[in-house]
Structures
1.
Amino acid sequence: MPAKILVVDDEAAIRRLLRGTLTRAGYAVVEAEDARDALRQAASEHPDAVLLDLGLPDRDGLSIIQLLRARDAAVVLVVSARDAVDEKVTALDLGADDFVGKPFDTDELLARLRVALRHRDHFETAPKIVTRGDLSIDLDRRIVHRGGAELHLTRKEYDVLTVLARHIGRVVTHDRVLAAAWGGEEERRVEYLRIVIRNLRQKLEAPEPVGSVISNELGVGYRLRAG
Amino acid sequence: MLDEVRALGIGGTWAGGDRIVVAVSELPGADELVRAAKRVADGLRGPWTALFVETPRAAGFTDAEHARVAAAMTLATQLGGAVATVPASNVVEGIQSFLIDARATQLVMGKSRRSRWFELRHGSVVDRLIRDTPGVTVHVLPIEAGHGGERRGHRRPARWGTPLGYTVTTAMVAAVTGAASALFHVLNLGNVALLYLLPVMAAASLYGLRTGLFAGLVSSLAYNFFFLPPVGTLSISNPENLVSVVVLLGIAVATSQLTARVRAQADLAAAGARTNATLAGFLRQMTSVGEVGQVAQMICDDVRRLLDVHVVLLAPSPGHGLGVLAASDADYRLDVMDTAAATWAFDNGHPTGKGSGTLAASEWLFQPMKAGDRAIAVLGVARDSGRDPVRADQLPLLASLIDQAALVLERLRLESEMRDVEAVRTRDRLRAALLSSVSHDLRTPLTAVIAAAAQLHHGATPELIGTIEGEAQRLNRFVANLLDMARVEAGALKLSVEATDLSDAVTGAAHDARRALEGHRVRLDVPPDLPLVRADPQLLHHCLLNLLDNAGRYGDPGTEVVVEGRHRFGELRLSVLDHGPGLPPGREAEVFETFRRLEGSDRAIGGTGLGLAIVKAFAEAMGMSVEAANREGGAGAAFTVIFPARLMMRDPAPESIA
């Protein structure tokens, strides 16, 4: 049975476009044009994922993220023209799985959706070993291989890579990464994280260009690319 | 014209249209005179002046008299007349000299109803003026006489002279007596009498009437006792000698009167000069300042210094009624009553508060500061003791200060209005340029998209799809820039600065600008060991997007676009380099000006219009600077964002990241 996606957007043109795109990609689609409608549809249709626009006519999209998450643990992808960084962080903190800016790249939207759904499916049975290209990260044994050779990572590098790997394909906010790797320490500063990421990239990416494995979301956080 | 006439030395009343002068006196009814003069002036359509002749008598004015003169002069100003005060020894002379100076043709004056006897004694000012001022029409209005007794009753106590004066006088008389006794064998009696003139004149001129009379009396007694036969008694045998005594006394009276008058006039002139110097200094000081708050503070401080009172200056603030603009002391207090009085003064243009006729319960005296017919501010003065804030004889000075201050405030207000108008004009110009930019930059890609979409009906080709995608991206970029510019213009840039890795920033920008850079090779040369910088990641991203977009647009097709980060001489330079025509030499910096492309002669050269202006605005908001230059060798343009040392971060301690 195909995954069911709820598209929440007040613009009929966007809904039509998304319906076409998602249907072609093999999903089942239901639509809602405002927050009230969205909550009703979520209750009756039990979607697997919600593509949520923030600028809804009746109430702010941010305010219904938690309500949507509470039902059936549907994944929520925010699709919004708002590009304020703090709103993105707020959406993630409220439980959104990811966000995509408008205007969006259709392929990228589908890729993010795939990642979010896969993560949901494997929520109960999180993999012990995360693999990506020539990289494999053994979360239990704290060992990282690249192209068959074991990489030597510092403790902080390993902590950062682990939290990104657990959410592979999804953005993890600075705060969450800092909490995971510097949690017990008084000083939690973004500049430490920057340097650790810089060192990690040298070990994981070179000679590929910067950002090919760990990408940066402006002002929000980092993402371990799904591949 | 007046100056010219004066320069040519043409005397007399020389009529070039009517000029009206109204002579204001300290008597009640002065304001009636002023109103009458205004009516005459209106009828004749001539300029008019209210004149006060400051005679030595003015020193003995009561407070009420001072106030009447000040009120009449203020009224004249309010009715549109000029005012003048001239010092003179008597009213007739003063009026005459002013009439000649001002080339007046009409004189309005009052005639008090005084007794025939008084006029017989003093002569009538009106009669003398009419007789001695040919060519001037004199309007005479009857006014109420001041009660002679009232004035005398309020006169300052007569000067009885100082003990020192009497001592010196006595000593002088004694000295003359001694000298005359010693020389008596060579002098006759008449010469001795002449010698006694010396102490009398000296005493009268130095110490005034009473001491002079005293000198005359003592001299005549000494003369009588020591020299007039029978010597040693106070009896006079020869009636001729009686004349000598009377002459001595007479000279004492005459000399002292003369000296007293001269001195009084000198005092008046000195006081006038002081006032003028004060006003000139006040004005000079204030014209050197260009900011309202500062001027207001200076007004308060100066008025406090000159009149020794507490001063507040209130001015209307938009939407809030009157507010305190400045005060001479930080701990002034204005209660509800004071505020009401100030507001009344502002609204009605009349003084209110203590010492005025309105809302006198307030501790403060509020005077409106007027420019033209409109009050622009209110000046309040008060004294600690609860007395009237301003002595009546200080009122003219205060009125002058307020007039001058009002002029200065009005000038500042007009200047700021001019600036506002100029700003609005600039904004309108920008808005017009923006509109034309919007219509061009939005319509061009839209046209392409619509045309390509129409073509799709005949079947999709990769070119058509590419066109639609590319032009839509251009639109997207332009809309983002419009939003950015709107934020800059609205002053609503909210910085969210964090430690930023430039290799992240450059990679992200190059990724997002990939379509604009299609057809170019892109080389990112940002060493991984550059220090982190403090920046707003979003704003920096938009800066880089615009620079890359610019390079993609103006770099020759197929050439390389390089992003280069360099750390040297204590600053960090991030440059975007292209291969292309470059910038017009000498005009490199202009490309960052808003709408430069539109205003410049060459549309193609100036850059992306909005884009580079945004680069500059954002970079400067974050504390960076921008630079545009041609590459060495002239093979293209180089745009550089420069991070000063203070935006660079030191590497964290190794244990923090281990």
2.
Amino acid sequence: MLGYYIRLSWLSLKKTPVLSTLMVLAVAVGIGSCLTILTLYGAVSSNPMAHKNESIAAIQLNTWGDEGGYYENNNIPVSLTYLDAKALYDADVADQLVLTILAGMAVNVPGADQDASVEESRVVTRDFFDMFDVPLIEGATWSERADQYGEPVAILNEALAKKYWPDSEAVGKSMELEGVAHTVVGVVDEGWNMTPSVYDLYGEPFRDAPQIYIPFFQVAEKQLPFWGNMSGWKVEDIRSHQDLLDSELVWIYAWAGFSSEQNRGEFEQFLRGFIDQQHEQGRYPLSQDFYLQTPEQWLDIFEVVSEDDKLLLLMSFAFLSVCLLNSVVLLLAKFSRHAPEAGVRRALGASKSSIFIQHLSESLMIALLGAALGLVLSLLGLAGVRQLYDNYTGIASVSTLTYVAAIALALLAGVLSGLLPSFKISRTAPALYLKAD
Amino acid sequence: MLEMKSVKKVYRSSLVETHALRDFNLSVDQGEFVAVTGPSGSGKTTFLNIAGLLETFEGGQYLLDGSDVSKLSDRERSQIRNEKIGFIFQGFNLISDLNLFDNVDVPLRYRGMKASERKDRIMSSLERVGLAARAKHYPAQLSGGQQQRVAIARALAGEPRFLLADEPTGNLDTLMARQVMEMLEEINGEGMTIVMVTHDPDLARRAERNIQIVDGQVTDFKLYQGIAQPAQESASETIS
């Protein structure tokens, strides 16, 4: 019977093309706007590290000495001093330890056709690649020794590698970063871009994928420039790079990874002891707290999903509701003209439920057509967002969520808009419409 | 085959109660051709609607093939309408968007038949009324008489137990009316039970039996043994 109902629905839509078009447009505009917002919201609110929510943690140490407290996020510094970061790294207690900051590197490949350029780079310890599931398509991460001593090695994004070596492997090649020769040891799949960038959410959680990765201790100890944020709570006379490394300024994001609860326990115990020791030496003046935040908590702390985002999502559903209400009114008008035919069908043996399903099928067909058109509108909307906002380039694109939502919204719209009109027409008293006049 | 005992039907509005049928008794046997006449507002249509299970009623009993159909659910009533009753309306009530094939197909669709069986029945019914060649035409492309023949084909396709005809020639000119009436007589001659509501005394006289309804009750009964025989007062046979 479903095929029969679909055929009847199509005939009915063709019979009133203007009304049908209006209904499809009403649903399309509602679903299109809803899909656009949902796609953006889905990307913004997703936790790409959900699968490691229990096994990795962002480290917060409360070194702050200002009684007014740290002024952002959860009122505890979100980054570490170099003193603490280095101590955690050297202690080697956690199974994985990632230290990371943002940097910009002037790139030059002697003899290459391309001009020198400045590329957004990420300065990391080697565990970064494994902890955040960064896919290497060539080579491998640098060695432990290179990690510890900040050796001049680099891992490139596939796009950058192709730019300089389009016809050959980049691994083993040499390039100058800030004038220092680095050897390429690996290449990251250019399709990889974690959004939001859980590993560093400060400022812009929807940044483009880094083009270059270099060992953390190069920047720290060889004075390469970095772009990350830096915060402090006391006046310090910082005149040299070493002064910066010895200061109470916080600027390094740190993550720990644990393969077991026991390892987590050992790390927590280490932190307690370390902080107590530092406190005795005059640091950590106000609090000796530390926090290990899950990726989910980290996203909350940085308010990646803002209240405005939630409000926008609600508004998009409200708009869809208004569109559906319009569709309900139009369907009521359309179906009221079906009453004589429904009366004949009832006389010929159609039950109330048959008439109901027949008309609900028509409403679903309108909603599916509306959803298809809405999907096209959503594609245009997302393209518009990408055009207007550079930082949305990575997330304003159609995802699986968009398609699933399109189908779900179509079914929802079809049922919601068709329920009342279909119910009313199914209650048609057949005898009323069977007389000649 | 069709038996109504003390059936009562009341239409209620906020101001008035209208007794459309009161203590209504009627029995129709298998193979009969019964004409139901009466003045406007007498209850003819109400009787037809109740007989066709298109309306419910308040009191009394309605037996179809010996089964009480008074208290059935909508689904059960729909199923009986679909399987046992064929309708022929004054205004034909064909669906204008469907061609003749699909119009005749409508009752069969609700019976869940296989496509091949439906097709056989549809073509056979259209052949029966002489319109098989026009199966792909639409109702608007036919004359009134042809449309009524399609309606008859639709009613016959489901092989019902009886036909309910409501003024089947009311919208037709004399020639077409005669053709349709002859077709009904032919169908009745093959054993089909027909109950026909009509205003036209000439048509009524062509039925085997004539029931007159006045004020919601059967008041007169005339038995004809052929065409246009004189009326006889013998209501006692069927009125309890």
3.
Amino acid sequence: MNAKERLQIPPQSMPEQEPHVRIHNQQEVPLGFTPELAVKEAQRCLQCRKAPCIAGCPVSIDIPKFIKMIEDGDFKGALAKIKERNMLPAICGRVCPQEEQCQVQCTLSKSKKAIHLAVSIGKLERFVADWERQQGVMDIPSLPAKTGKHAAVIGSGPAGLTVAGDLILMGHDVTVFEALHKPGGVLTYGIPEFRLPKEIVNYEVEYLKKLGVTFKFDYVIGKIKSIEELLEEFDAVFIGTGAGLPSFLKVPGENLLGVYSANEFLTRANLMKAYDFPASDTPIFAAQTVATIGGGNVAMDSARSAIRLGAKKSYILYRRSEKEMPARIEEIEHAKEEGVEFHLLVNPTRIIGNNKGWVKEIELLKMELGEPDASGRRRPVPIKGSEFIIPVDAVVVAIGNSPNPLIPKETPEIKTQSWGGIIIDEQTGKTSMKGVWAGGDIVLGAATVILAMGHGRIAAQNMHEYMMNGQW
Amino acid sequence: MTQNQILSKEKIAPLVTRFVVTAPDIARKRKAGQFVIIRVNEEGERIPLTIADADAEKGTITLISQSVGKTTYELADLEVGDHLQDIAGPLGSPTHIEKYGMVVAIGGGIGIAPLYPITQAMKKAGNHIIAILGARNKDLVILEKEMTKVSDEIIVTTDDGSYGRKGFVTTALQELIDQKRKMDLVIAIGPAIMMKNVAEVTRPYHISTLASLNTIMVDGTGMCGGCRVTVGDEIKFVCVDGPEFDAHQVEWKEMMLRLDMYKEHECRAMERYRKEKKAQQA
Ligand SMILES: Cc1cc2nc3c(=O)[nH]c(=O)nc-3n(C[C@H](O)[C@H](O)[C@H](O)COP(=O)(O)OP(=O)(O)OC[C@H]3O[C@@H](n4cnc5c(N)ncnc54)[C@H](O)[C@@H]3O)c2cc1C
Ligand SMILES: Cc1cc2nc3c(=O)[nH]c(=O)nc-3n(C[C@H](O)[C@H](O)[C@H](O)COP(=O)(O)OP(=O)(O)OC[C@H]3O[C@@H](n4cnc5c(N)ncnc54)[C@H](O)[C@@H]3O)c2cc1C
Ligand code: SF4
Ligand code: SF4
Ligand code: FES
């Protein structure tokens, strides 16, 4: 097939659950490519010699190579190619912000300045990973001889899982300590089932268990064991404890009944399966009108969860315009299809309660866009005297999370940034404490799955060297 | 003997059960004032319970639970040999223990369970302890023997006068104050309304008063903010910043409202549980 023929193939769209159906269930929204659709989509790739897409991927997957293998029907080979760089393709294929990473660099979208024309790299990645899982045979690679070294990994989010996987494949023993009763970090307690089925996270964890990784749940490091104590038992320690500390608005009324942090709202809904109440024991307040504050993935997940929990109205309240929203384009589109109403350029100033202490209304201030700020996005500026009130009966605050302070607080030897992130050496992942590495959201603040994995990969390599030669 | 296993179970008052369970790492590490979060089964809710006692050598911790809703009823249904699904801990900041001089330890109802390890540690630190234990009636006074052991003086009050002195713990406290007894610290643990009333009694005399808050929790690690309370002008997370706070600074009204947030759900869960249990027995 020549380039011209390839250019004539339109972008293949992935079948999805219809909005009016999916708002009544928790099942995944996009249903996945069939092999035929995947091959067709793969045929669109021009196999560019310079492959700019690779530079857009934080872990530098050889994108054209794996796409070519899909085109040739070698799905197994394609997956192996991806796995050279990315341990969790079924997850990244679903949740990576592709439109800012690999796909924004794709020649097909760049030349036409139309992001939707890019090769659907993420969807193809998802396809091969799903294809393998559906074959029902888990490919367990043979392990090298044991090194006799033992590493501790704190936190079972994408950063921790990556470190565990890499180290076990290098012959080390690995124990993962997780504070909650289930593995996966945000992948389990935060991102909803309809966007990332927990079956996939469990599959990846099962794989690690089969390779011999030990998981210890309900283990809050810093409380049950200090880092110093871990270093007596283990040869190296990785901290991947994420950015779990929710920010609040600091406006009056924030502690009224019906005001949730997104973390609490999503944890109740996902980890504790509140959507199944009373078959599951953990309740959630089934509000009729829910206002979610924020414009990122966390906000979209909350607003869409609210609809599935029975809300008649679900609002997104965001202080900038849609263009500045950090959420993935797909999530914004899905939210709109599901009836989420977007109120842009507004900022909450107060939450008003009824006489029983429950949320009744929220007061908003209109904003306009000013000069770009440090992040390059135009800064929202309040319009004086423009306050107005809308009735709501629950508020979900999704304005960001910062690094979990528990371990740094208990371990003064580990240096942190003023905003709480653990300071590491970028090249190695080392912290200021000998024998201790860190990566993912605990270092970056709330970032992305693929960046957490990238960090994990660098740290694992360096931990391996340290455990083998003892040089810090 | 495996992790999370119930080694003994004893009813110490109507609806109050004491369990000894295996949790060696927690037993070794825990300090007075800390708690665990447990789940009874796979679909279960995460609920906080204070570590009422621990034996580091045997690797066990003691939990005392009052049956008030579905999860605590289910817990009370477990038998020796059964396992709890999850025990995470020790959580929360330990009580700051030092020699203050005179410490008044006030426990109401099930609050006596969390009060006991703190009193024990305060006694060990060389404090003179006056314990005031309060309950609705005689049957509900728990841990009197244990508390007597770690106190220098003990006063028991019951609402109906069926045991000890008739009245509330605050009545006894006010009397001590009126007798000009010196007090360096008051610690109050019990129903929120009791802790609030204790704070009101000591406030005019500027007696340092601590309360241990029992807010609703989910994770217990500072991740969800569900346990938040206003203390002074700040928002605090009870699970990591507490559970103990200056009782004079706590925004009690807000805290008590938040505690009842899921009342309706809790009733539904309980009804369903009762029905299921009936069906099982039939
Ligand atoms: C709702 C939501 C939606 C998101 N959507 C996307 C998306 O679409 N795409 C994307 O790329 N990113 C998304 N993100 C961000 C992404 O999930 C995170 O960047 C990523 O999970 C960070 O990985 P991590 O391994 O560093 O930490 P986490 O995933 O946060 O995992 C940390 C783990 O450590 C555990 N832990 C914490 N403290 C301790 C302790 N003391 N001892 C033991 N264990 C501890 C925690 O319980 C947790 O399981 C989203 C985040 C949220 C909250
Ligand atoms: C740090 C901490 C330590 C605790 N230690 C103990 C302990 O040692 N022993 C013990 O018996 N209980 C203790 N509690 C309270 C215990 O967690 C609750 O009783 C339990 O969560 C109730 O769960 P349930 O499903 O049985 O009842 P639910 O159905 O959840 O509630 C039933 C009733 O109890 C009330 N309630 C709900 N949650 C709480 C709460 N957190 N505190 C008080 N009342 C509540 C509700 O308003 C309702 O009326 C502690 C709480 C905290 C925060
Ligand atoms: S890992 Fe993410 S950024 Fe990299 S190719 Fe896959 S979808 Fe794109
Ligand atoms: S830039 Fe796009 S078309 Fe070119 S190789 Fe990468 S995916 Fe294929
Ligand atoms: S219980 Fe979630 S932050 Fe305290």
